[in-house]
Amino acid sequence: MAELKIRQVVRVPDLSGQPLGKAKLMIENAGLTLDVVLFRESYEERNTVLEQRPPRGQMVYSGDAVTLYVARRSYTELLPAIYRRSDAIGRNFIRDLCWLLEHIFGRITDQLDQIHMYFDPHECPEEFLPWLAGWTAMILDMDWPIEKKRAITKSAVDLYGMRGTVRGLKAFLKTFTGHEPKIFENVWPFKGFRIETEGLIGVDSVILPPVHTARCFIVEMPVKFQDVSPEMVIRIHNIIAMEKPANTHYYLRFAVETQGEHLRDFFHIGLRSGIGIGHEIVKDEPTEVTETEVEVSSLPRPDDVTAKAAQGGSEDKPKETKESKEPRESRDSKEPKDPDDKGGRKKKK
Q: How many other C-beta atoms lie within 10 A of the C-beta of residue 160?
């Protein structure tokens, strides 16, 4: 068995003499619906409610439809007087045809009467905002709330006058990312030679020509790279490329963990060499040696004397030569023999 729906009984409000916009709000607040709006020729102010059905004060169910009759001027006012004449029984075909056309195109006429609202970002419909912002080359993010879209579109003309400047670039980045960056002009982080971890030229190492710092700048975002999504990084690059002067180059960096660090030259011939960013091998500078240090260093250390004594040798013992290590017989064999000595030995006298 279908459940019975309980309908609430409401009273129809008095709409006579009200403007059409206010009458629509009163119908909505009473829990009713607007069925149709019909035009009736009258000298009252345009779109003033002349009649309503059901009449005021009648008890109806919630959700019932209400029909309104509003005041309009016929299009025959714009025609010559001969077309406004009626026949013997009071009928006028031209007037009836104009009323038909006015009912068909009445909505368009209402929009034309309120066309000034479409040029105001705070009053135009939401679907009209991207088209209105496109007049000033402003791109709206679809994820923004409607209030932010209207505010940015309202200030688009002022932002357009700052395009290509440091102030304008900061304003655009803060508007689209929520973070105001720092911009350093006439600087560049690299001097033309950089070696990364792999050391592959063209892959992760860069050899650049001389850079003219007069056309370079650095954009530093106050957030860490780990806290930024890849989509946000792409958006930042697109904003900078769109708002910077065409003949300039930029370098984007993010906040680092340690404070007080600055960009350094990654490769110096004779001073410092490095592989990768921040992994430098720095050569210690030579220190001056005093006379006291020379005298102390010339004296033998106790450890050296003990080690030599343990080896059984002394510092004054002559070193054995290669010849002294050879056997005696081998040395005798090298001496020249006397041809008169038959036994190979000289006779002793």
A: 13
